[in-house]
Write a structure and sequence with these properties.
The chain has 148 residues and is an alpha+beta fold. It has 3 helices and 9 strands; from the N terminus they run E-E-E-E-H-H-E-E-E-E-H-E.
């Protein structure tokens, strides 16, 4: 099986079901998560350890990216079947923190001397510390941006 075709995402009456086509449990694809239409929340059916494992890591990242796309649709009408429309995330309670892929987030830092802004992934700071500008001085954190 092509690794790009492993993730199954199916629209069901209560949400989007994510499963791994490569593995089976009880005669069906391995169930990974469900994205609830009414709350816009992901419910995982694999452990945190499994989410970080090489076996599922790429699929988890795909699911998180898809979740990020759907989160941008909260409050919007969509067709959940050929005969039914609904408002995505209609019972969502704010605030709800949700996991997002690092690909959907960037941190903006500024060189104080030049005023030039630099865009970095969330991983940069944890891996390298505060970024250094062209003048050799620590840059200043400005803001976080989320892809919409």
């Amino acid at each position: 099986m092509n690794e790009n075709e492993r993730l199954f995402a199916g629209h069901y009456p209560t949400g989007i079901v994510y499963a791994d086509r490569k593995y089976e449990e009880n005669g069906d694809y391995k169930f990974l998560a469900i994205l609830s239409y009414d709350t816009a929340e992901l419910k995982w059916y694999i452990t945190d350890e499994e989410k970080k494992s090489l076996k599922f890591y790429a699929l988890v990242e795909e699911i998180l990216q898809d979740h990020g796309v759907w989160l941008r649709k909260v409050g919007q009408e969509f067709n959940c079947s050929t005969t039914q429309k609904m408002i995505f995330g209609y019972s969502r309670k704010e605030p709800v923190w949700t996991e997002m892929s690092n690909n959907d987030i960037r941190h903006v830092w500024m060189d104080e001397e030049s005023g030039e802004e630099t865009y970095l992934s969330p991983d940069f700071y944890s891996d390298n510390g505060t970024p250094i500008g062209d003048t050799g001085m620590d840059m200043i954190y400005v803001r976080t941006e989320v892809l919409r």
